[in-house]
Amino acid sequence: VSMGLANLGYKVVALDLDIGLKKLDLIMGLENRVIYDIVQVIEGECTVKQAVVKDRLNPNLFMLPAAQTRNKEDITEDQIKKLITELRKDFDFVLLDSPAGIEQGFRNAIAAADWAVVVTNPEISAVRDADRIIGMLESAQFHNIKLIVNRIRPEMVKDGDMLSIEDLLNHLCIDLIGIVPEDTRVVISTNTGEPIILSQDSLAGKAFSNIARRFTEEEVPFMNLQHNDSIWEKLKSMGRNIFSSKQVG
To answer: What is the value of pTM for the model shown?
Structure first.
């Protein structure tokens, strides 16, 4: 999604908040360019400009890596808020990659966020985890919450072997911002550090591109991946109204 926003001309920085288990630099193919990390920025060992790493493929995209030898508890919510305030001065979008779980890293991620995107697979266990995260967000008075359904397989949904989009929306009760179909090229993309969004013939890449456009409040219809036309007509309407009020990403 960060690459999609950068492709649209926005200046974007992605923050890896998974302290101790950093991976965003690997996914983006930037691991060899990392000199400083987010903890060093917060502790004053370097400046933000020294720590952010420019993407190899798009000059609008930057990444601030996590520290691998520190703990999530080494950063506080107030420190993250201060850092985000500084980053907002130079970037159109600041994307926070939250670690899995509900520990300090999760609290840090939502401390300075304007809205949250919950990503889930259409599986019972994953949906249960997503529901728990949504509940925690709402209990923290965080109500700008969007949903991305990842790795959907239309043929399995049609056969009744996978939860449908409608099932997930009825259960989670938050706005849908993206549907990403299963695509084996995502694995190749991750291993090579080449974003799937740059693959012209990839449905998953197209889905991520559409999500990025929705981040900017553009009205983008959802791709019809199933044979159930009625739910997709509803999704088209949702695509028009998903950002009915002004929100900051």
So the answer is: 0.88
